[in-house]
Amino acid sequence: CLSAAKLFFAYGLGNALTFPMSVGASVILNSERPTPARMFDLMNRYNPSIFYGVPTLFASMLNDETMKSERGGKAFRTALAIGADADKPKKVVKAKSVTLVAPNQGGFIGFIEARIIWHIGSFVRHHAISTPDAPALRVGEEAMNYRTLDRRAAGCAVRLRDLGVAAGDRVMIILPNCVEWVVLYQGALQAGAIPVPINPLLA
Known about the structure:
The protein is an alpha/beta fold. The chain is 40% helix and 19% strand. It is built from seven helices and ten strands. The protein has helices at residues 10-22, 36-46, 55-62, 70-80, 122-130, 146-162, 179-190; strands at 2-3, 27-28, 51-52, 91-95, 98-102, 110-114, 135-139, 142-145, 170-173, 194-197. The strands form four sheets. It has a three-stranded mixed sheet. α2 packs across α3 (55-62) and α5 crosses α6.
């Protein structure tokens, strides 16, 4: 999964980390400004199954010179596939215990019902046990599987406790999109703390 929004935004945190990691997917982090050229480059390099963006970015990408090439068109077809049936009636898809709905406006799939509730901090541990070698993060040329991410997060949780962080305490994260951001976020959750992401440009 690739998200244009950064992790310190709620939209980016959900799309770029929480939702994909809840199902054991691989997360592609973009540490640079999400320009059309940058997004096309990441999409062609990693071929994400899902790309999350915003209308202004989609419009810019559609009007970009790259779209005229086969390279750009191929990359963007995947991104638009989710909203391709906007004019058709609403579809309801049932998968095990989760029901998803695709509204007829297109471009959005929302969770309607979920009978299995996990703590957000348990996602990484679960996949570290079930699919330890599956890629969890990709940042540039750096990749990390779920086993390694879980080990680093657990080490971070121990260090936070050693520093006096207790359950319910808030841990501020002032970092750009990077592996350390995710490790600290997951470590804080494993320590029982509440991660508080801050835009590093405003700090």
